[in-house]
Specification:
GO molecular function: oxidoreductase activity
Helix content: 25-40%
Radius of gyration: 16 Å
Low-confidence stretches: none
CATH architecture: 3-Layer(aba) Sandwich
Order of helices and strands: EHEHEEHEHEHH
Protein name: NAD(P)H-dependent oxidoreductase
CATH superfamily: Flavodoxin domain
CATH topology: Rossmann fold
Number of strands: 6
InterPro entries: Flavoprotein-like_sf, FMN_Rdtase-like_dom
Mean pLDDT: 95
Strand content: 15-25%
Pfam families: FMN_red
Distance between the termini: 34 Å
Structural class: alpha/beta
CATH class: Alpha Beta
Domain NADPH-dependent FMN reductase-like: 5-151
Number of helices: 6
Shape: globular
Length: 205
């Protein structure tokens, strides 16, 4: 069984080495994927000078092209984001805006370059909103050409108006942990199928 490649884009608002719950859930997904012969790495987007925009390269030192190269080299993309004010973090929204450029980047068969790649989402927060954030992020990823597996998201939210982060909440093997393992297993399965049999060419391009 050939090894697949996964990339986590952690959309924490905090730069390294600050603790990050979204980085934690991203790393947990990588650990679960390793059980299915998937290698991976994590990049915290806030550590990079990513410019606002909707092109593949905004110039003037924009560091998105280097992250984009990692996306294109991966079979599975994981977006890990905290919830802020019931929304995906601003860093996550910026990443989605940059990925919008992929609609114009086609292969020789007329397909966006991210066709055949699988996307999964990990969400953490101290408030309700995980389903809303998941819906926004997965819809955006699907719009630009990523494929979403069954049960393609995992999340944890703390008590309403609470102050405990996922970093400090302790293991949740029967809830978030099980969901993470399921998302990883389904993502690896789907990515392997798509690698072996890509989508058909887009007619008219």
């Amino acid at each position: 069984m050939a090894t697949l490649r996964a990339l986590v884009l952690s959309c924490s608002l905090k730069k390294s080495p600050a603790k990050s719950s979204s980085e934690l859930i991203g790393r947990e997904l990588l650990t679960a994927l390793a059980d299915h012969d998937v290698d991976g790495e994590l990049a915290r987007v806030a550590d990079h000078d990513v410019r606002f925009g909707v092109s593949v390269d905004e110039g003037d030192g924009d560091e998105w092209p280097a992250l984009r190269a990692k996306v294109l080299a991966s079979d599975i993309l994981i977006i890990a984001t905290p919830i802020w004010m019931g929304q995906p973090a601003s860093v996550c929204k910026m990443v989605l805006e940059r990925l919008d450029a992929e609609l114009s980047e086609k292969d020789e068969q007329g397909r966006p370059l991210v066709y055949g790649k699988v996307a999964v989402v990990g969400v953490v927060g101290n408030e309700d909103g995980a389903h809303h954030v998941t819906a926004e992020v997965l819809q955006a990823l699907n719009d630009v050409g990523f494929t979403i597996p069954a049960a393609g998201a995992t999340y944890w939210v703390g008590e309403a108006m609470g102050s405990v982060d996922y970093n400090d909440a302790g293991p949740k093997p029967d809830t978030t942990g099980l969901t993470t393992k399921t998302a990883a297993a389904n993502a690896a399965h789907l990515a392997r199928l798509l690698r072996d049999q890509q989508y058909p060419a887009i007619e008219g391009d």
